[in-house]
């Protein structure tokens, strides 16, 4: 087990900047997930930590010791890749033992570690099999076993579930969560799948174009996204965004005019008192409440998606954007009908023209100050 500190890490490939000033403290035993869209630098950051790529600027510390110049084995890190990378001609036993034998461990130590690892990963009945005689999930467990057997201080996972089908993905995801609980090792996991990030992470790091956009627990990122980028990335179906005009409304926050919905006062603090600041309103599908509309009022339902436990209504706005709102299943609404929408102002978000979230209006503090003065 180990803690990890990244201090202003930068990576360039030639003139291309891929990682920009990434600073991060990862605690001993923490499960941290890097997420972000394709090409944002997730795998590169993981490979910098593993020692598979060199760091252009910045320091990487493990347990307080600078490790920039250490080789991957010297760093005490194990890595599991998306492609499993098992040796096809070797048995499960030999695949798991490979790194230990390479490190010239005693035969008895190798045997003990392989059997202990296989037991934890429930591979003990499969030790004589070749990889081709295993399911995708079992192969991925062997790949994890191979990384684990050397008892690394830190385990890194690069999209380890991408090659599995949906059911196996959920099962293996659960196994990784249990593994973390049992081993208590520091784990860093890369994925572009926000469900994996939400379910596995103690802490999520959202990357955008090589920068850290926000770091926080899954709940913090979901409920208090710092930017429109994070708000749109975390959550499925994603948050609805609407252009609105806003003006300051004293202690209460700001008043916005939402096309097709009406005026609402949101407990969010505007940067200045300027009238009519163009902002973006963000509301999650589960926070929009649909009601049958009279005549041509509201929004037309263009699709109803039935998912068994819930349904999603896809609604057309006047400027041809689509809004999504959750409804019970089976839905009382049908395609072609019109609905009006409402939402609780305290559940909505506002973003400025740079995409930064407006902070909450500290209504309590403001009224206390007013009382004191
Ligand atoms: N060896 C390299 N030489 C030049 N550019 C590279 C190299 N490796 C990665 N890149 C570039 O760095 C950027 C980040 O790549 P990286 O693989 O880290 O992204 P990612 O977030 O893991 O993407 P994905 O989810 O698609 O795997 C990309 O623009 C990629 O083209």
TrEMBL record:
Gene Ontology molecular function, alphabetical = ABC-type maltose transporter activity; ATP binding; ATP hydrolysis activity
- Its domain of life reads Bacteria
Q: Is ATP-binding given among the entry's keywords?
A: yes
Recite the UniProt keywords alphabetically: ATP-binding, Nucleotide-binding, Sugar transport, Transport
GO CC entries? ATP-binding cassette (ABC) transporter complex, substrate-binding subunit-containing; maltose transport complex
Q: Give positions of region: Disordered.
A: 353-373
According to the entry, every stretch annotated as the ABC transporter domain falls at: 4-234
Indicate what this protein is called per its UniProt record: Carbohydrate ABC transporter ATP-binding protein (CUT1 family)
| Coiled-coil positions | none
